[in-house]
Automatic annotation (TrEMBL), chain B:
Compartment(s) of residence: Cell membrane
Residues making up the signal peptide according to the UniProt record: none
Keyword ATP-binding attached: yes
UniProt name for this protein: Peptide ABC transporter ATP-binding protein
Limits of the ABC transporter domain: 6-257
Keywords: ATP-binding, Cell membrane, Membrane, Nucleotide-binding, Transport
Residue intervals passing through the bilayer: none
Length: 336, 322
């Protein structure tokens, strides 16, 4: 995608309003084989992705299992180094950042995971868990840190006494609140939430979604919100990106994306999502077959093996993500 | 009106140990009509899986015990059958599919062998016939390369393919009732759509009734003729899916419907249900939803509300519902 289009993507946002910018990011995982464990191929988990995130904005990432959502999140967090491309955060190129500079930068972005059970050390008290990032980064005296922990627990809707208890004494939703309190401790600017409500029961999911919305308002947070649930993503996001086999196939304001999806894959996804309503007659597009392996993605448009509108050109030429109409970005030859 | 295919009456399945009694299923009533889909919806721990395992008489013992109730299949009480008679019912009349197909598929047997085994055992086919028929069944569940798939092992298939293979296996003995416990929960939406389509198509073609268990109200809205809402080991609302979606009578059902984001609507703020599901080892007296209910009155905590039929065929377990 050209720089011009990237700007269009962020609706002519001046550079200073952009918090995060990914340009041509790839993440390949080597596949080794044979007795010599030589590299014989690569899983193209993320294959050339570009997008921007404005300050205070929530960008949703949707797509099916294995399409590269979590890998994208982990590359943003610098948990994984990208194979190619650049990541800019708050005006700074952080692609090559390491060591102390990275540790300092890291305070500004935090991640919340799907599984509140495994992301919290079971042997640490809740207070110790929330205090840990503050202690590691020397954010005050013991008393100050204790007060701050109590405040953070209240912010996420837990009682200050919770700090004395251990994660296993809490329900899934409460554990997710603990994880969020911990993520908030260093006053980050960006939170990458990877399936943060997917493991929760619906009645609890709503509590956490409301909490995330409140925190956003209160602290001006930006989110990259990763989920396979289209309705949840629509609820929380300003803009939504749809991924398929490591690529961004469509990226637009949520109102446009959901009312007027352009990419055949987005159309199929939306038509397949069951809605809790009776007698909605929808023309369901049932895709044949499974998602191909990212170790061996189809040539041309990676969706061509399942696309109901496939044309000859799709099999050989990879469609670029380009602006269509008033700024909706789509990677499909139908709109070339 | 003919008798229902399956009637569950006052079913209680508890896990009993020296120190505790977990009331996993605690007085459940519902029925399944012939050729219809009954959807059972509820949050995790509400007793959905234990209800279905009770019907199959596969409750994990020795702690898990069916302590009360009747399960009538075609008028015959399954709880009175010998283990041998029950094995026969499981193979021939009731089929079951699970959330995680790998728990039901044998990893060291080829797909064709597993389906073939069901056919030789329950339908008296010889090996060659069984293999041929297995290919047929796999084609019916939408495998384009069925001839090859019979020779593959479960781990060689994707999640959606395994789920379809398990459906083929469950359908092999032409059951009159298929119990599907979260059959699409682990699947992607486009694959879920394939599997739901398949189940609907099989039902229409064979007349098999289905109990579809899920925590997803969207799946229920799409598939169910009748539905049951479970909370704390009990049925809190039941009726035709049309009537429950049209007029949910239980405060919990209403709250659930308001708490989920919906693609078709813009919801400024979700109506969250405060608190958490009560523990099955320690239910409160009276209404089990009382601690989370916005309409709660003191009378709700005094006595367990009865499941009352408030509209024709539409029942609710709430003292205040009118
Ligand atoms: N460390 C790794 N080594 C090798 N392959 C990996 C690694 N991490 C991820 N992958 C592969 O990269 C692809 C993308 O994975 P990723 O976890 O990003 O998917 P996802 O979109 O988050 O899926 P899900 O919805 O299942 O969480 C998958 O094919 C996955 O198997
Ligand atoms: N083996 C077991 N021992 C003790 N309690 C159990 C066992 N299996 C399930 N339970 C309890 O029974 C209740 C209902 O479980 P289940 O039917 O699996 O719920 P669902 O399928 O609705 O999520 C839960 O409280 C659960 O903890
Ligand atoms: S480029 Fe071709 S195959 Fe790909 S989505 Fe568009 S029409 Fe379908
Ligand atoms: S009985 Fe009372 S507490 Fe229970 S659901 Fe009805 S109104 Fe709420
Ligand atoms: Mg993931
Ligand atoms: Mg279950």
């Amino acid at each position: 995608m050209s720089v011009a289009e990237r700007q269009m993507d962020a609706n002519h946002t001046p550079q200073s309003d952009i918090l995060l910018e990914l340009t041509g990011v790839k993440k390949y995982f080597p596949i080794t084989g044979g007795v010599l464990r030589r590299t014989i191929g690569a899983v193209k988990a993320v294959d050339d992705i570009s997008f921007t995130l404005r300050k205070g904005e929530t960008l949703g990432l949707v797509g099916e299992s294995g399409c590269g959502k979590s890998t994208t999140g982990r590359v943003i967090m610098k948990i994984l180094d990208p194979t190619a491309g650049t990541i800019r955060f708050d005006g700074r190129d952080i692609t090559k950042l390491s060591g102390r500079a990275l540790r300092e930068m890291r305070q500004d972005f935090q991640m919340v995971f799907q599984d509140p059970y495994s992301s919290l050390n079971p042997r640490m008290s809740v207070g110790a868990l929330v205090a840990e990032p503050l202690i590691v980064n020397k954010k005050g005296t013991r008393e100050q840190i204790r007060d701050e922990v109590e405040r953070l627990l209240q912010v996420v809707g837990l009682s200050p006494e919770a700090r004395l208890r251990f994660p296993h004494e809490f329900s899934g939703g409460q554990r997710q609140r603990i994880a969020i309190a911990r993520a908030l401790a260093l006053k980050p600017k960006l939170i990458v939430a990877d399936e943060a409500v997917s493991a929760l029961d619906v009645s609890i999911q709503a509590q956490i979604l409301n909490l995330l919305a409140d925190l956003r308002k209160e602290f001006g947070l930006s989110y990259v919100f990763i989920s396979h649930n289209l309705a949840v993503v629509k609820h929380v996001s300003d803009r939504v990106g749809v991924m398929y086999l490591g690529r961004m196939v469509e990226l637009a304001d949520k109102a446009k994306l959901y009312s007027q999806p352009l990419h055949p894959y987005t159309q199929a996804l939306l038509s397949a999502a069951p809605e809790p309503k009776r007698n909605v007659t929808r023309d369901r597009i049932v895709l044949a077959g499974d998602v191909p392996s990212p170790a061996n993605p189809p040539s041309g448009c990676a969706f061509h093996t399942r696309c109901p509108k496939v044309m000859d050109v799709c099999k050989s030429q990879r469609p670029e993500l380009t602006a269509y109409g008033d700024g909706q970005l789509v990677a499909c030859h139908l709109y070339a | 009106m003919s008798t229902p295919l399956l009637e569950v009456r006052n079913l209680k399945t508890h896990f009993i140990s020296r120190t505790s009694r977990v009331r996993a299923v605690d007085g459940v009533d519902f029925s399944v009509e012939r050729g219809k889909v009954l959807g059972i919806v509820g949050e995790s721990g509400s007793g959905k899986s234990m209800t279905s395992l009770s019907i199959m008489r596969l409750v994990p013992g020795p702690q898990g015990q069916i302590v009360d109730g009747e399960i009538l299949l075609d008028g015959k009480n399954l709880l009175k059958l010998t283990e041998r008679e029950m094995t026969n019912i499981r193979g021939n009349q009731i089929g079951m599919i699970f959330q995680e197909p790998m728990t039901a598929l044998n990893p060291v047997l080829k797909i064709g062998e597993q389906i073939g085994e069901v056919l030789t055992r329950h339908r008296g086919m010889n090996k060659a016939e069984a293999k041929k028929h297995a290919v047929e069944l796999l084609k019916n569940v939408g495998f384009p390369r069925a001839e090859q798939i019979v020779n593959e092992y479960p781990h060689q298939l994707s999640g959606g393919m395994r789920q379809r293979a398990m459906i083929a296996m469950a359908m092999a003995c032409q059951p009159t009732l298929l119990i599907a416990d979260e059959p699409t929960t682990a699947l992607d939406v486009t694959i879920q759509a394939q599997v739901l389509d398949l189940m609907r198509e099989l039902k229409n073609r064979t007349g098999t009734a289905i109990i579809l268990i899920t925590h997803d109200l969207g799946v229920i809205a799409e598939m169910a003729d009748d539905m049951v809402v479970m909370y704390g080991g009990q049925v809190v609302e039941s009726g035709s899916a049309d009537s429950v979606f049209e007029e949910p009578l239980h405060p919990y059902t209403r709250a659930l419907l308001e708490s989920i984001p919906v693609i078709d609507e813009e919801r400024e703020r979700l109506t969250a249900i405060p608190g958490t599901v009560p523990s099955a080892a320690n239910f409160p007296e009276g209404c089990r939803f009382a601690d989370r209910c916005s309409l709660v009155e003191s009378s709700c905590r005094e006595k367990m509300p009865e499941l009352r039929e408030l509209r024709k065929g539409h029942s609710v377990r709430c003292t205040l519902a009118v």
